Amino acid sequence: MRDTDADWERIGQEEPYYGVLTHDRFLRKNIDGQALQDFWDTGEADYAHLTATIQHHLGDFKPHTALDFGCGVGRLTRAMAKRCDRVFGVDVAEGMLIEARKDRLPNIEYVREIPAAKVDWVHSSMVLQHIPPVRGYVLIDDLMARLNPGGVFTLHFPIFKDREYLERITPYFRRGRWDGETLTHMSLEAVAEGTMLMYDYDVSRILMSAIAAGCAHNYFNHSNHGGCHTITLYGRV
Does domain 4-236 have CATH number 3.30.360.10? Predict the structure, then answer.
C-alpha cells in the first residue's frame, strides 16, 4: 500500500495552502494578503453551506464541539471555531499544522491523531480521497465512534471516475488484467512522492459504518470534479 502520509508530509512542507486548494494563486510564490483572505473566505462559505444543508435535511444543529479530520492549515477549522466552544483539527502533515497554529483561535487544538474526546460534529472534506480505502474505512469507523448522541457527520469522498479522469491515471499502469468487466492493475510505474492520488470508496461500506454507529437519518449530495465524481454524506446518530 502506498504511504500517502509521506506524500502529505511533503506537500505540507512545500505547498501547504496549494495542497488544500489546488489553484495557482495559493502557491507559496503567488500567495499574498488578498489571496490568503480569499482562501479563508472559502472556509466560511463551506461552513455556511454545510450547516444550512444539515439544518434543512437533518434538523436543528448547534454544535458545541467539532472535529475537522484532515484539517490542513485550518481553512474550515477556523470557521468552526468561531461558532463552537471547542474544535479539534486533525492532520497527519506537520507542515500543515505549523501553518494552522499561526494566529490560531484559543479554542482550537491541532493534533496529528484522532482524539479520544466525544464531539457533536465530525467533518472531513477533500481528505479521504487521498487515503487508500482499506485505511480509510478504519478511520471512518473511528470518526463515527467520536460522535455524541444526536451528533452529525459530514464526510466527502469519491465514488467513481469518468473516462476523461481515468485517462489521467492509466499512464501509471505497466501491466493489468482485464476480465471483460474489471480492469485490475498488476504493476504500476513509480509515482513520485508528493503526488496527489485519488481513491474511490464504496458507499455501502460507509453507510454500514454509519448504521452501526446508530445513524437513523442521512442525506447526500453529488459533485463532479473534472470527471471525478464525489458525494458528501450527511448523517445524524
Answer: no
